[in-house]
Fold this protein.
Amino acid sequence: MIDINKIPSPCYVMEESLLRNNLSLIKHVKEQAGVNIILAFKAFAMWKAFPIVREYIPYSTASSKYEAQLAYEEMGSKAHTYSPAYTEADFPAILKYSSHVTFNSLSQYERFYPMVQAGVNNVSCGLRINPEYSDVETELYNPCAPGSRMGIVSDLLGDKLPAGIEGLHFHTLCESTSYDLEKTLREVEKCFGRFLPHIKWLNMGGGHLMTRKGYDVEHLINLLKSFKADYPNLEIIMEPGSAFAWQTGFLLATVVDVVENHGIRTAIIDASFTCHMPDCLEMPYKPVIRQATEPGEGKYAYRIGGNSCLSGDYMGDWWFDKPLQAGDKLIFEDMIHYTIVKTTMFNGIPHPSLALWSKDGELKIYRSFGYEDYKNRMS
């Protein structure tokens, strides 16, 4: 049992036992299906936990030169790198820290492939394709929406891939099921099947939420096995992010004030939705608060407000069995994936600390943040 009184506020707390459960499942899928599953830093980059991750999964995917360097330094392996657009300034570092590089467009390929050829590193190159199909309903997260800047549509490719292209990459999913992947694969084969027998690898991107309760893991394994049987020449790569850190920890915050306006009570906390839980506002979605209950007679309803100056830095409503007051602790569930990597110091709001609750029942503070962290970002 975690003793919340030992945790500084605010603080992101990852539970090692829950992380290991996810990693065990991901490794099981990898081994049973005979595919390569790698960690996407865009969702989870808490590198002090990478020694745990490396016990199960040795590789990662990057979307920038900094993520690629992090892969090299802290995962101990070169990254599978994709970016919507590389620059001349960044590309030498991309080559240095990457084993695979995927180009988003033919113009990017034409511009940078000569640098791959001239380099000393053995880098495998690919193209991101856009099958123009996705089940993702939220436009913000749909990489195949009409007019998307992500990937090359079939009409722009002829019957033969450009010289030096060894793989294809698609990404159409977001917290999706194996049945969504099955439908996507049909579209990929329909649009790009002419290339599949002639390449070395196919990267199926992220969004495979295989660690979510109810996900049909066996269907995923059988689907991947069947696809590999059809294309035995292919190394299949998957790069989920959320699946690694899904429901592995929480954000602890403290109520600092309660205000009321026209009968609406708002509990203001020492954290912020816009700074520390941005996906709640962007998606949007309402996170689970551990202490909250279902609405009913005798319950106390509250909005929860962040402590930034943004008027919209709030969500609601939650119900509690007793009135909230300053000093009460609130635990926002499932706040490790995507949340930490997207935090800001808007308004000079301090970052929550980063911590691990170890499998031995010990709280390890990975990092605390202070004024210098804010000041250095502004310099």
Residues 34-245 form a domain with the TIM Barrel fold (CATH 3.20.20.10). The first strand starts at residue 11 and ends at 15.
